[in-house]
Amino acid sequence: MRFALAILILIHGLIHLAGFVKAFQLAALPQLTRSISKPVGMLWLTTAILFIIASVILLIKKDSWWIIGLAAVVTSQVLISMYWTDARYGTIANVIILIAALLSFGAWQFSQMLEKEVEEITPPAQTRTFDKSSFDNLPEIVQNWLAATGAIDQSQSNFAIIKQRGEMKSAPDGDWASFTATHWVAFSSPAFVWNATMKAGPGMYVAVRDKFLHGKGSMLVKVMSLVTLNDAIGKEIDEGALQRYLAEIVWNPSFALNSDIKWVQTDSTHATATLVDNGTSGTVTFTFDANGLIEKVEAQRFYYTGDQSKKEHWIVTMDGYKNFNGIKVPAESEITWNLKDGNYTWFRMEFKISKSIHSYLWQLP
Q: Residue 35 carries which DSSP code?
């Protein structure tokens, strides 16, 4: 589609050269019935050049093409209005390019927001190795888990980038929609940014951004990165985002060593983790299997129905443990709400993990 759009813009731009040719009498163009002055002819040439540049920028996959594209559409439509009888059909191409440019603007603006937010949560690059003494203050069951993952004596980063792929649905009776996502998460100060792109029909997608920073969470949902469907903030969002952060340390075992996390072993297979950050508190319960690995994370988390929310039982199950870069983590995950009317599984995904210089990069094939 990018290539087809670039070709359309290029051809549309080349057609504008006819106005320049007519004005300077470089060739006979009987199709253009009205005379064109040389200054206006230069404007036709300028517009053609703008379209050609926009086409080239689009072809090299630069999202900023819309800036020149919009300028070209505006000048083009002014010229078409001046010479409506001869050029009116150019309006069709301008409308198509205008819609594409607005969508590209939405994607560019969304990308700029993400870039700024990720930069805000990214700590200075730091890697360290944790030996057994680092875990001495943790409950035995948590120490056993860290040993089972192989995190002891392994080099760990203070920042991780997680690439995901899976499917989710927005209602118990809804259809599954595939998604790809990137998750940026920090260790020393609890923070993350999660961005998912979910298919929403032919040529359509929904962009989702979940965020936690300085004790505040937010959830932003936009159609085509442009039209806002939901922009949720508040204490319930803050707590839920912090609970998500705690649950996801299963993929970053060294994050469990954050001294602000208060661990309590409740029995031989369960331990709770509580974290308070800038006035926001979150608690989750981990269930460990016979091998000492985490098989489930649970919490009482706010569930939204319309404009109302109440706490429901939230369950994250882990499976398919694999050894990646010397650390054993689950390669598959599923999230379920245990509601009064029955279980509502709405999210499932899997991972493939490889190591990068600054962080652990977890990515699907």
A: -
Same domain for 95 and 141? no
Residue type at 67? I
- Residue 214, pLDDT > 70, answer yes
- Residue identified by tokens 């899976």 is 166
State how far the Cα of 300 lies from the Cα of 313, in Å rounded to an integer.
5
How far, rounded to the nearest angstrom, does the alpha carbon of residue 6 sit from its chain's CA centroid?
A: 26
Q: What's the CA gap between 241 and 280, in Å, rounded? A: 10
Work out whether the CA dihedral 225, 226, 230, 232 comes out positive or negative: positive
Token digits of residue 291: 């091998």
Residues 306 and 241 in one domain: yes
| Cα–Cα distance for residue pair 304/169, rounded to 1 Å | 14
> What does the mean pLDDT of the chain come to?
89
**Same domain? 163 vs 288:** yes
Same domain, 25 and 89: yes
SS (HEC) of 347-364: EEEECCEEECCCCEEECC
Would you state the structure tokens that stand for residue 183, as one six-digit string?
A: 């998750």
Q: What are the tens digits of pLDDT across the range 110-155?
A: 999 999 999 999 887 766 676 677 778 899 999 999 999 988 877 7
The predicted structure's pLDDT at residue 352: 58
Closest CA to 273 of 240, 314, 232, 243: 243
- Asked if residue 314 lies in contact with residue 243, where contact means CB atoms within 8 angstroms, the answer is yes
Total residue count of the chain as it appears in this document? 365
Question: Is 329 in contact with 322 (CB distance < 8 Å)?
Answer: yes
pLDDT of residue 31: 86
- For residue 22, the one-letter residue type is K
- Which domain CATH number covers 218? 2.50.20
What does the buried/exposed string (b/e) look like for 308-340 if buried means 16 or more CB atoms within 10 Å of the residue's CB? ebeebebbbbbeebeebeebbbbbebbbbbeee
Confidence at 37, pLDDT banded by 50, 70, 90: very high
- Residue 137 lies in domain: 129-362
What is the predicted pLDDT for the residue at 306? Answer: 67
pLDDT at 164 over 90: no
